[in-house]
Each structure stands twice: as structure tokens, then as C-alpha cells.
Design goal:
The protein is α/β, with parallel strands linked by helices. The protein is built from 8 helices and 10 strands. The strands form 2 sheets. The chain has an 8-stranded mixed sheet, with helices on both faces. A two-stranded antiparallel sheet has the order 7-8.
Length: about 290
């Protein structure tokens, strides 16, 4: 695969359906093979994925990443959503706006919570997609009995209240510099509301249930020692995909942020191989003609 020069990022703003301002970053190439839209995880922001965007640029793909509502430089109360469909409506606007620049639909990549909503978006068929890439997706979010009771209580009296998400930052990566940078990042927050958590639980259940409806190439990149999400959700999702649709790589001993792990080169190599396969698959009909 030829290597391309990375593009300079361009910042822009889009408005969600309810007027919430969404912060967007584009890394666009003049003659890209296609586009990739990236959805980040809980509490973080799209700026943490600059190295991932540059990787796709080097592979010949333009990239759009954005901050979810309630995250980073986007508007909205931290860690909250107005209803369980808000993230999906936002994604539809961001993806549609980006797709207009290309001849075909983009790839959709989501990490953790972003992977969860990306999977839900794709299985719901809310937009045409060229493929789906899920990095340590939060397709299953484990809750103890006590946590379940707290969720029910908060949902009844203060559904939008942001409470600590309990994320154990030491399990983000084996690289201490990654953990330190995350903890010092002023755009990272530790909030989650009952509404957002409920939306995540509903999205996970729906995505797992409707996995067989996916007809686009789907790649799962799953941490083997993930303390932040229940990786069994990825197994269930993958096993329910139609034959020939899914590819799954499991990384034993890797923590949650596989693109930021000390062994991330292996993850990027697997992603590069999958991208090459998709390019070949797309080009075959033209070559046959």
C-alpha cells in the first residue's frame, strides 16, 4: 500500500438537530480513496485521535472526527444526552455532511462508547456506510446490583445529573505516558448521567440483537485484558454477524485503548491489511468490466 502525506487538520462547527454545537475536525486529502468518520469514547474528545487520523491519511483516506455532545469542545452538559437517540441523530448529521464530499459512503470507526453507538448506527441502517470498524466497543456495559439500583433511582429523580463515571484510568494503556496525558487533559471529563448510561445500555442491546442485519464489511479490534468494558459483548456481536461480513482480532494482554498501547503497531498493521482488502473488494467489479 502506497504511503500518502498527512493533511493539516481543519476545525469546523456543525449544529445538531436541537441546535447543539458540534466540534468537528477534518483531515482531508485532495485525491482520497474515500472517507472515514471517527467516533471517540466516553469522557474524551476527538483530539486524542490525531495519530489515528494521520494513519488513515497515510493509507490514502480522508478523515473526519468530532466531539460528541457533552464532550470536548462540543456543546451540551458534560456526559449527558437529552434522549437515547441523540447520539445517533448527531452522527447522521456529521456523516451526511462529510459524505457529500465523496463519490461513495464512508467507513465508520468507533472506539469504546463511540464503537457502541457506531454499531447501533450501522445496524439501524441510518446511513449508507462502506464498512464498520469497532475498537474495544462498549457493546456490553457490566453493572453490579447496586449500580443498577442507583441508575434506576437517578433516572427517576435526576436523569441529567452528571456523576463520576468510575473509569479506572490506569487500565487505559500499559504506557504510563498515555495515562498521564489523559489525566492531565483539560478536555477530558469524568461525568456520566443516568440518561447517557441508559442510552448506552439500550444501544448495546439493540446492536447485539440486530447484528445479523449488517451487510457491510465489519472489523472488530478487541483488547484481551479490558477492564473498562465487557469484551464478551464484542464476542456476541461478532458471532451474530452474517457469514463473510466480520473480521475480528483479539489482542491478548492489551488494555482498553489499543491504538495507544505499547503494542499498537500490531493493531495498525491489522487495520492496514483490512483496509487493503476493502480496496480490492471495491475495485474488483471495475476490473472485471
Amino acid at each position: 500500500m502506497a504511503t500518502f502525506a498527512a493533511a493539516a487538520p481543519v476545525e469546523r462547527r456543525l449544529n445538531a438537530a436541537d441546535g447543539t454545537s458540534l466540534f468537528v475536525m477534518d483531515w482531508c486529502l485532495p485525491d482520497a480513496k474515500g472517507g472515514v468518520v471517527l467516533m471517540h469514547g466516553l469522557g474524551e474528545h476527538c483530539g486524542r485521535y490525531t495519530h489515528v487520523a494521520r494513519f488513515f491519511n497515510e493509507c490514502g483516506w480522508s478523515v473526519r472526527a468530532y466531539d460528541h455532545r457533552g464532550h470536548g469542545r462540543s456543546g451540551g452538559p458534560r456526559g449527558d444526552i437529552p434522549d437515547s437517540e441523540a447520539m445517533l441523530r448527531d452522527a447522521a448529521i456529521v456523516i451526511s455532511n462529510f459524505t457529500d464530499r465523496f463519490d461513495g459512503p464512508p467507513l465508520l470507526l468507533g472506539h469504546s462508547m463511540g464503537g457502541l453507538f457506531a454499531a447501533r448506527f450501522a445496524t439501524a441502517g441510518m446511513a449508507r456506510l462502506r464498512g464498520l470498524i469497532l475498537s474495544s466497543p462498549a457493546l456490553s456495559v457490566p453493572l453490579s446490583g447496586v449500580q443498577g439500583m442507583l441508575l434506576k433511582a437517578l433516572g427517576a429523580v435526576a436523569p441529567g445529573l452528571g456523576v463520576p463515571n468510575g473509569l479506572q484510568t490506569r487500565y487505559l494503556s500499559h504506557d504510563p505516558a498515555v495515562v498521564a496525558a489523559y489525566e492531565k487533559d483539560p478536555l477530558v471529563h469524568s461525568k456520566i448521567s443516568a440518561r447517557l448510561l441508559t442510552g448506552m445500555l439500550e444501544a448495546g442491546a439493540c446492536a447485539r440483537h440486530h447484528a445479523a442485519a449488517l451487510k457491510i464489511p465489519t472489523l472488530l479490534l478487541v483488547a484481551g485484558d479490558d477492564h473498562l468494558v465487557d469484551a464478551s459483548g464484542s464476542e456476541v456481536f461478532y458471532n451474530r454477524l452474517s457469514p463473510g461480513v466480520g473480521t475480528m482480532h483479539r489482542y491478548a494482554d492489551y488494555y482498553h485503548e489499543i491504538f495507544n498501547e505499547v503494542g499498537a503497531a500490531r493493531v495498525f498493521a491489522d487495520l492496514r491489511d483490512w483496509l487493503s482488502q476493502q480496496e480490492t473488494r471495491v475495485l474488483k467489479p471495475e476490473h472485471a468490466a
